[in-house]
Design a protein that fits this description.
binds iron/sulfur cluster, globular, 2 helices, mainly alpha, 41% helix
């Protein structure tokens, strides 16, 4: 599975990247969506 093409510019990702308390949730999300098989289901992508 390739990374989402939006990962570098994604505003969702950028927003939570700054928040230390969100890192764990963000990692889980990124692995499932941005870098995983749920990528096509991402609501941000629409
Ligand atoms: S999968 Fe969604 S949240 Fe993740 S980088 Fe792509 S558009 Fe952004």
């Amino acid at each position: 599975m390739t990374d989402c093409p939006n990962l570098a510019t994604c505003s969702f990702f950028k927003k939570y990247e700054q928040d230390a308390s969100m890192q764990l949730a963000l990692q889980g999300f990124v692995n499932k969506y941005c870098k995983g098989d749920k990528q096509s289901q991402c609501v941000r992508k629409k």
